[in-house]
Amino acid sequence: MAIWTFYNYVSDIGTEYVAKWERKKLVPQERADLDALLAALANTRVWTSSDYDTLTNGDGLGEIRWRGNQRKALRVIGLRDADAKAFVCFLGCIHKDNVYDPPD
User: Fold this and answer.
1) Whose CA is closest to 87, among 73, 76, 100, 74?
2) One-character DSSP codes across the chain
3) What is the pTM assigned to this prediction?
4) How many CB atoms are located within 10 Å of the residue 17 CB?
5) pLDDT tens digits, residue range 26-52?
6) For the chain, what percent of residues have pLDDT higher than 90?
7) Neighbours of 66 (CB within 10 A)
8) What pLDDT is stored for residue 84 in this prediction?
């Protein structure tokens, strides 16, 4: 049984931003790599900084990290509740040189 549970945030109008980003921005291998990473994290009691880190001035937000094709730094931004062992995924982005795409 998994230790952690992942949830996708759904907006008031029914948009799942991470799923939308995956469909538009990631190639199939990058989506498969994210699925594999989430499956591994679900069964990992303590996450390492290579897979997850909190955002500076992010009010508790953090990012799940992995490398995509062409060595893109890919991120899923969300909120982690270590006590409940839950992570809510808010949005996905590409991160390079302290610049996030999409920027908002």
Assistant:
1) 76
2) --S-EEEE---TT---HHHHHHHHH--HHHHHHHHHHHHHHHT-SS--TTTEEEPTTSTTEEEEEEE-GGG-EEEEEEEEETTTTEEEEEEEEEEETTEEES--
3) 0.89
4) 19
5) 999 999 999 999 999 999 999 999 999
6) 74
7) 17
8) 94
